[in-house]
Amino acid sequence: EWFMLDFEKHRQLHGFTATLNNLYLKRRELWERDFSWSGFDWIYADRDADNLIAFRRMDRAGHELVVIINFSAVGYKGYGFPVKGKAYRVLLSTDDEEFGGGGMKYPELIAQNDMDMITLDLAPLSAVILEPVNERTVQRKKRTKKQTAQTDGKK
């Protein structure tokens, strides 16, 4: 019933499903160690009062993704998550406007604080997948932004 894609919400869900499927295929962390506990680590398994779970998925090379799911109809401001990496970026947010969400904006880099935690605002009924960003990537982004600003200033 492809005519359903004529309706915006159906088109957005179709786009989300395609994006999620592509992410799954591209990111080994999500499937390479499916049948082993070495590919999965709970961050929060017992946040039932908040209706929230968070976990890590790892591939054989040790790369990880962090998955955070808010099952609550209530959003959260500044929710803390213990992490191993220094900085993260959002790979996927179900709250993106292109998927029919409210469009919560996340910073380009989500940095770890002094307590080895990152803090995130979470939209109601949403999921976020985060990817660690290494120091070289952070430095490269800073240089690129600086160069762009310098180039824009010369125009």
- How far apart the termini lie comes to 51 Å
SS-derived structural category = alpha+beta
How is the largest sheet built, in terms of strand order?
Answer: 1-2-3-8-5-6
- Oligomeric assembly: single chain
Number of E-state strands: 8
Approximate strand percentage: 25-35%
Q: What characterizes the major β-sheet?
A: 6 strands, antiparallel
**What is the radius of gyration?**
18 Å
SSE succession: HEEEEEEEEH
**Gross geometry:** globular
Number of helices: 2
Low-confidence stretches: none
Helix proportion range: 25-40%
Average pLDDT taken over every residue: 88
Describe this structure as you would to a colleague.
This protein has 155 residues and is an alpha+beta fold. Helices cover 25% and strands 34% of the residues. The chain has two helices and eight strands; from the N terminus they run H-E-E-E-E-E-E-E-E-H. The protein has helices at residues 8-26, 135-154; strands at 40-47, 52-58, 64-70, 76-82, 87-93, 110-111, 117-122, 126-133. It has a six-stranded antiparallel beta sheet. A two-stranded antiparallel ribbon has the order 4-7. Strand 1 (40-47) and strand 2 form a beta hairpin. The longest helix has 20 residues, at 135-154. The radius of gyration is 18 Å and the shape is globular. The mean pLDDT is 88.
Write the layout of secondary structure elements.
Layout: H1 8-26, E1 40-47, E2 52-58, E3 64-70, E4 76-82, E5 87-93, E6 110-111, E7 117-122, E8 126-133, H2 135-154
Antiparallel strand pairs: 1-2, 2-3, 3-8, 4-7, 5-6, 5-8
